[in-house]
Design goal:
The strands form 9 sheets. A 4-stranded antiparallel beta sheet has the order 9-11-14-13, with no helix packed on it. A 4-stranded mixed beta sheet has the order 10-16-15-12, with no helix packed on it. Strands 17-19-22-21 form a 4-stranded antiparallel beta sheet, with no helix packed on it. Helix content is 12%, strand content 37%. 21% of the residues are buried. It has 4 helices and 28 strands. Pfam families: He_PIG. InterPro entries: Ig-like_fold.
């Protein structure tokens, strides 16, 4: 029997809250504490550390020597790049398929890649980037380029020191204040900045209010960024070989004094679609050039001339043909005019005279018609008239000769000639035209007239811009009624067309209504 005096009473131990939980409940409880308490605290600490040192959580980089020596780069960069020098380190290899749809077993090229890049910006800023995995040289350079685009200002020089106003008003054209550079009470700034860009451009800026050095530097960097333009060279279009036209006419038929004569001259071009223009000079008195036949398809031209020759002899007819690309050819064709009657002997020859006193006015773009007449007291004389100085689009047509009867039908002794000028004048203006009449004995006279061509509203064609990129404005037109033309030939040029303002963003560029493209 146990001795009661020696017995010990064991009291049950009291369990706390955590001991009462089962194993699964303990796991859930610990997870809840981690999510609710530990994880937010760790995140907050990480954010604080990142703000204090943004590079604290970037991969560690090896120590950089104060003056790095750069080896030749494996891939050349553009001269317009913001990165001045760079070098790659830690090469690695990464297989890259030539085609995203490449099938198994197809050829795979091995592209050289790197994990490390050192670079220097235009202003001397030096930086190094290390990546966790292999990256292409293009990707590494792109990262360096993004950084150096904020380091384009070379040798900035600040002006006089001044006190930056804390609540300064917004000034048009002033550089924006950086969020991290909000002026504090008593902060010192500068009244101007002078700087140069990587392309050699030198500029300066003087704001209306005192500004921090960081804001001035930001403004200068924006200016230099506008000079960092990498434009691709415009390929020179290959100009097809152009052949000169050929005058196919080899000779002219012989004519007779006093008898009607007509002939033609033809030229061709082997280049399809070439528009040809022919000029004929040296025709004898009595013969004049007529119309030219030019097909729509181009490649050939035939010009006619006719009349009644009044002088015998052998004449050198000079013919020149030119195509739309300015290739030309010329030829001299001999023209023989013979006589079948003896030249009458006249003791005294009276020169002919022009009887027309004036010519009517015309309108640009509208059909014009006028007649010039002349008279010779010698009824047997053959007359010839030429009119020069006509405006572009107006030509001399055929002349009509008669004897003893005036152009108005009145019977009177003498010889008469009436010549018509017609066409459609292109430009308005005052034109001095001269009519010269000559008889078959060499006696002649001339008279000048003033032909007034007034502008027409329909002659001005407005294009803002045209298909060739030229601004053609009719508000207002030029003095001759044509449009006022403007080319986009330099950056920053401002013009109006149709009461709308246009901006030329760059030399040889296209006109735009965005006027901000002309501001720095």
């Amino acid at each position: 029997m146990e001795d009661p005096s020696t017995s010990i009473e064991l009291k049950p131990q009291r369990k706390n809250f955590f001991q009462k939980l089962s194993r699964s409940q303990k796991t859930s409880f610990l997870s809840l504490i981690f999510i609710v308490i530990i994880l937010p605290i760790a995140t907050a600490l990480a954010m604080i550390a990142t703000r204090l040192n943004p590079r604290a959580y970037l991969p560690t980089t090896p120590p950089v020597t104060p003056t790095p020596t750069f080896t030749p780069t494996p891939t050349p960069i553009q001269t317009c790049s913001a990165v001045q020098k760079y070098t790659f380190e830690s090469p690695c290899k990464m297989p890259v398929a030539d085609d995203p749809k490449i099938q198994e077993g197809s050829n795979i090229r091995i592209q050289s890649t790197y994990t490390y890049i050192n670079f220097i910006c235009a202003d001397g800023y030096y930086e190094s980037f290390r990546f966790r995995s292999c990256s292409t040289t293009e990707s590494l350079l792109r990262q360096a380029e993004d950084t150096c685009r904020n380091h384009l200002v070379i040798k900035p020089t600040f002006g006089n020191k001044c006190l930056v106003p804390v609540n300064r008003p917004s000034v048009q054209g002033s550089p924006d204040i950086l969020p991290s550079e909000t002026p504090k009470k008593g902060q010192m700034g500068f009244d101007s900045i002078k700087f140069s860009c990587p392309d050699g451009f030198v500029s300066g800026y003087e704001p209306k209010t005192c500004t921090t050095s960081a804001s001035l530097n930001t403004y200068a960097n924006k200016v230099c960024l506008s000079h960092l333009v990498c434009s691709k060279p415009t390929p020179t279009p290959s100009t097809p070989k152009n052949s000169a036209p050929v005058i196919t006419t080899t000779s002219l038929v012989t004519g007779t004094v006093g008898k009607n004569y007509s002939s033609s001259i033809t030229a061709t071009d082997v280049d399809p679609g070439d528009a040809l223009t022919m000029t004929i000079s040296g025709l004898p008195i009595g013969l004049r050039r007529g119309p030219c036949a030019v097909p729509v398809t181009g490649g050939t031209v035939t010009c006619y001339f006719s009349g009644t020759p009044s002088v015998a002899g052998t004449f050198k007819i000079y013919v020149e043909v030119i195509d739309k690309l300015k290739a030309s050819t010329s030829k001299i064709l001999p023209l023989t005019i013979i006589t079948t009657r003896p030249t009458p002997t006249i003791s005294k020859n009276t020169p002919p005279s022009i009887t027309t006193s004036s010519v009517p006015s015309g309108v640009a773009g509208k059909t014009y018609l006028a007649t010039i007449t002349a008279k010779d007291l010698n009824s047997n004389d053959n007359l010839d008239m030429t009119v020069s100085g006509l405006p572009f689009g107006v030509y001399q047509e055929n002349c009509r000769e008669s004897s003893t009867t005036t152009p108005n039908g009145v019977v009177a002794p003498g010889a008469y000639i009436s010549c018509t000028i017609s066409g459609t004048p292109v430009k308005a203006g005052l034109y001095k035209i001269t009519a010269k009449v000559q008889d078959d004995k060499g006696a002649s006279s001339s008279k000048s007239f003033t032909l007034t061509i007034t502008p027409s509203a329909i002659s001005c064609k407005q294009e803002c811009p045209g298909a060739d990129g030229v601004l053609r404005s009719c508000t207002p037109p030029e003095a001759d009624g044509t449009s006022s033309d403007s080319l986009c030939n330099y950056r920053g040029r401002l013009e109006t067309c149709g009461n709308v303002s246009f901006c030329c963003p760059s030399a040889g560029g296209k006109w735009t209504k965005d006027l901000s493209a002309c501001k720095i």
